[in-house]
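Example record used in the benchmark description.
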Amino acid sequence: MTTRNSVKRFHGMALWFALGFCAAAQAAVDFVAPPPAKGFAAPPLPEGPLYYPTGEGHEIKVVVVARGLSFPYSIAFLPDGAMLVSEKNAGRLRVVRNGVLDPRPANGIPKVIANNFSGLLDIELHPEFDSNQLIYFSYNKALDEGTAVAVARGRWDGRDLQDVKDIYVTAPGTTAGSRIAFGADGRLYVTIFGAFGNVPQQGDVVDGKVLRLTADGQIPPDNPFVGKAGFKPEIYSMGHRSATGLALHERTGQLWELEMGPNGGDEVNILKPGANYGWPLVSTGRNYAGPYQTKAFNNVEGMEDPVIYWMPSISVSGIAFYRGDKFPAWQNSLFVGGMRTGEIAGTGRLERIHLNADMQEIRRETLLADLRRRIREVAVSPDGYIYVLTDEADGALLRIEPSDRQTEKR
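Model output (structure tokens):
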């Protein structure tokens, strides 16, 4: 694993300013791009199951569990076997019981502000859910001075959320997506988008940061920037563009962050306290008009390198480690959702990245590409199945399971 000299992560920024790189890097990403390619239309999802061979030699079966979800964003598994699914644009929390989508949304979700990147976002169960029934979610809300990213929690009564309240709300003007996850330390980690300008490198705002909070939304006293002038104390790491996934690696206790680049430069990072992940000073991506975002790619003083990256981009969203027993050959695999490849519509896929014992990439495999759907989320259920959400007005919940048919040996 390479790093951008994490030992000197706090001092590297001074070097950048002294060399005059910062002024060039502050230029906003160029969103003026040539007209998009026509792309590909997505075929209808079949009523019956789909079967696919895989690179590890076993066949998989893919079934549609639920349809009619409005731009679904996140999945959470309840101990009783039910699943919760957030609908980003509609601002609804849906329940899937015994493989059937309940037509009645759960009550308790506050009003959300929805657009391309905003709405009802991530869902996460408290680590002690069995005893406290607490469910956390991130969403975008309206304030008098503008929109904000909020994290709220409520008590699940089996049908609805009760006693819902915000535990953390950003300053007005903070918009777009957010992912949340509890770390091995019991703290709640919250991602905030930072795609525009130089805000990911500014310590006085939370844009382009990963935040670390207590389960009550307070600031832990051991956060890396507590007491540092010019820094928000809730910041855990900085220099992030558009974080679209968080996954805890249970064996190591490390939290892995998935981040969408511009036209290329998607990446996976291992989060470290106080670390700077470079955006917009360092990127492997191009801006939307074609030129590289920056001349600095990796091994930059004071910056952390990604452990995995994509060029061209697959518009990453959703990340999960496989930890079940249904697919033995997929142990040590990381799954990442992709919404489109190389800026061409209709090229979404699921990617499987096989890792060695040191968590280094060995090989990649593309799955579900023929569905031509934007894969927004991937999650592994407690019983070892893999679930994915398709990002569309008539979104679907899909389950990947071992094949149940006899096939010839390959």
